[in-house]
Design brief:
Order of helices and strands: HEEEEEEEHHEEEHEHE
Strand content: 15-25%
Distance between the termini: 25 Å
Strand order of the largest sheet: 2-4-7-6-8-11
Structural class: alpha/beta
Number of domains: 1
Shape: globular
CATH architecture: 4-Layer Sandwich
Helix content: 10-25%
Radius of gyration: 16 Å
Number of strands: 12
Oligomer: single chain
Number of helices: 5
CATH superfamily: CNF1/YfiH-like putative cysteine hydrolases
Length: 209
């Protein structure tokens, strides 16, 4: 779902199209959340609309942020991940969706709590109403966040979401560990030489009227 060396890789574009077709979405009505580490603030959130359709899906022009939010039922939000936690968020009351990238940098800045606070403050969301789906992440034994007292990626994400008022019953967690499960990529394990392939899986969400 992502090629770090070629952002317009035709095989990646094809894979994305197939993946999205399986959820009745189109690549040309999808927006990719782009991640940049050349920043100081990793809790930046942007609302996207019809004008952003197709951004980042065939090349470099993604929307750089730590979460995308939309009220547009024709749009799908898309995030490739390989170790970081992707969080798809649905507010059935305000009828909005968000897609957050909870990587190490964001979690160190309390991003799991801040995205919920943003939805509450800017959109009137009630944390108790929000439904959340989480992607797999590396096991704590191989990927710890030393700045957060050596917590695991998922451990930190859950702690911050609960602190924001999210109900445990409203979180659907994919418990696979990317470093161990052959069905998922792990960039950190690839760099260590423990996985042969470099790549990303992905998470997507839309309102789909």
């Amino acid at each position: 779902m992502y090629n770090r060396r070629d952002l317009a890789d035709p095989s990646v574009v094809q894979n994305r199209s197939k993946f999205l077709a399986n959820i009745s979405a189109s690549i040309d009505n999808t927006v990719r959340l782009g991640v940049s580490y050349e920043r100081e603030n990793f809790c930046e959130y942007k609302e996207v609309a019809k004008k952003h359709a197709g951004f980042g899906m065939r090349g470099k022009d993604s929307v750089i942020a730590d979460a995308l939010i939309t009220k547009d039922s024709t749009l799908t939000l898309f995030l490739p991940v390989a170790d970081c936690v992707g969080a798809a968020i649905y507010d059935p009351t305000q009828n909005i969706v968000a897609l957050a990238h909870l990587g190490r940098h964001s979690l160190e800045q309390n991003g799991g709590t801040k995205i919920i606070e943003h939805l509450t403050g800017q959109y009137g969301s009630d944390p108790k109403d929000l439904k959340i789906w989480l992607t797999p992440a590396p096991g704590k034994d191989v990927y710890t966040i030393w700045a957060l007292e050596n917590k695991g990626m998922k451990e930190a994400a859950f702690e911050q979401l609960f602190a924001a008022g999210i109900l445990p019953k409203n979180i659907t967690d994919n418990t696979a560990e990317t470093d161990k499960d052959p069905n998922y990529y792990s960039y950190s394990e690839f760099l260590k030489g423990n996985k042969k392939e470099d790549g990303d899986h992905a998470i997507a969400i839309s309102l789909q009227a």
